[in-house]
């Protein structure tokens, strides 16, 4: 098994340490893990609680790799928060930093946190969802310094609407634009397996969106638990591999020095 979305003590919202993850991953029989701690700027372009301590992060990663690297592949990754009005500043932030993998995620739209009710105030669900998806498209259109798009329909986690579904047919035009652009740029799409703990089905994005990505020619899919707590990380992963296999993905993507390579799903059973 493999996990390419894990938060540690270097993310403000995580209760996991790198060493704990390494020990548990080996115990669970995982083949490979990638740490993807948060690095977000606030809407004014300044560092805040989700600022990454890059030097200490790197030091602890190297220590754990040296200690456990003979038992499991350990990759140094990042979850970078993209905001369309800060893309140049974000790119500068990443300059001279080394990672195996960068997951690009959108947590803010129009300088407003998707976690906050302010974003949804006086908006119908479809308007809010379209606004979010347009922000995703702008970010991936104008920014290249990422490898994979994280949790494409993350807005479903935080929105206050009773119906939290994001059905492909309702947003097909903008979704096709996003998926086609990812494919054209050689970027991957994350299969985020945190959906169950938010009562949002099996996987983010949904199976129908992942299938559409494949039908359009998409081949690069990563698998990530989006772990922040021990119980997130110990989730059983096999059924999600089976879901991806049923959709038609015969390989899961891994990265080294920002370059993808592929692991056959049959090797992960």
Any overview of this molecule?
The chain is of the alpha/beta class and 269 residues long. The protein is built from 9 helices and 11 strands.
The mean pLDDT is 93
* Biggest beta-sheet profile: 7 strands, parallel
- Looking across the biggest beta sheet, what order are the strands in? 1-2-3-4-7-8-9
Q: Which class of secondary structure composition applies to the elements?
A: alpha/beta
Shape by Cα distribution: globular
Count helical runs: 9
Terminal-residue CA separation:
7 Å
Q: Poorly predicted ranges (pLDDT <50, ≥5 residues)?
A: none
| Residues in helix, % | 25-40%
Gyration radius, in Å: 17 Å
Q: Estimate the strand proportion.
A: 15-25%
DSSP summary, beta strand count:
11
Name the helix and strand elements from N-terminus to C-terminus, one letter apiece: EHEHEHEEEHEHHEHEHHEE
List the helices and strands and how they pair.
Layout: E1 2-6, H1 18-28, E2 32-39, H2 54-68, E3 73-81, H3 87-94, E4 101-105, E5 108-109, E6 112-113, H4 125-142, E7 148-149, H5 155-158, H6 172-185, E8 188-192, H7 207-215, E9 221-224, H8 230-233, H9 238-247, E10 251-256, E11 259-264
Parallel strand pairs: 1-2, 2-3, 3-4, 4-7, 7-8, 8-9
Antiparallel strand pairs: 5-6, 10-11
Helix pairs in contact: 1-2, 4-6
In short:
This protein is of the alpha/beta class.
List keywords for this structure.
globular; two-stranded antiparallel ribbon; 11 strands; 7-stranded parallel β-sheet; alpha/beta; 9 helices; 20% strand; 269 residues
């Amino acid at each position: 098994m493999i996990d390419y979305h894990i938060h540690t003590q270097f993310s403000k919202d995580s209760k996991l340490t790198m060493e704990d993850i390494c020990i548990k991953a080996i115990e669970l029989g995982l083949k490979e893990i990638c740490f993807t701690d948060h690095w977000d700027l606030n809407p004014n372009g300044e560092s805040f609680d989700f600022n990454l301590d890059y030097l200490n992060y790197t030091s602890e990663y190297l220590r754990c790799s040296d200690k456990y690297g003979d038992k499991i592949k350990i990759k140094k990754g990042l979850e970078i928060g993209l905001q369309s009005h800060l893309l140049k500043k974000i790119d500068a932030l990443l300059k001279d930093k080394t990672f195996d993998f960068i997951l690009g995620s959108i947590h803010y739209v129009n300088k407003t946190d998707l976690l906050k009710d302010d974003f949804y105030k006086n908006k119908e669900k479809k308007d809010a969802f379209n606004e979010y998806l347009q922000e995703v498209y702008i970010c991936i259109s104008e920014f290249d310094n990422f490898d994979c798009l994280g949790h494409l329909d993350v807005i479903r986690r935080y929105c206050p609407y009773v119906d939290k579904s994001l059905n492909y047919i309702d947003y097909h035009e903008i979704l096709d634009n996003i998926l086609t652009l990812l494919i054209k740029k050689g970027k991957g799409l994350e299969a985020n397996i945190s959906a169950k703990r938010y009562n949002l089905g099996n996987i983010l994005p949904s199976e129908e969106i992942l299938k559409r990505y494949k039908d359009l020619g998409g081949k690069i899919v990563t698998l990530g638990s989006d772990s922040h707590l021990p119980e997130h990380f110990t989730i059983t992963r096999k059924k999600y591999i089976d879901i991806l296999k049923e959709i038609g993905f015969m390989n899961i993507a891994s990265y080294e020095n920002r370059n993808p390579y592929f692991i056959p799903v049959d090797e992960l059973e």
